[in-house]
Amino acid sequence: MVESDKNEFRDVMAMVCELYSKKMSREMLQMYFGALIQFSIEDVKKGIGEHISCKKHGTFFPKPADIIRGIEGEDLLPSEEFRQYLRRSNRKVEF
Questions:
Q1: What is the Cα–Cα distance from 62 to 45, expressed in whole angstroms?
Q2: Tens digits of per-residue pLDDT, 34-77?
Q3: Of 15, 47, 89, 95, which has the fewest beta carbons less than 10 angstroms from its beta carbon?
């Protein structure tokens, strides 16, 4: 992310906080931004979306590592990994 992504990041995190009934301080927001700065804002939103919809981890407020797990696709079942591969590759599989 870059400096110009801060407002969008703040808005996204505000929605996440609302979803999980949490409050986020300015310091906590800065810590999350710093931990995720190497990713694009689109990747961060994807990671948050993956976390929220995860049956295993999504019931808890995401920590930066959870968002990174969502970005990088860790802890996926083989069938989920295959679906992600297909989405990324835009290929159709015919049988």
A1: 12
A2: 999 999 999 999 999 999 998 888 999 999 999 999 999 876 55
A3: 95
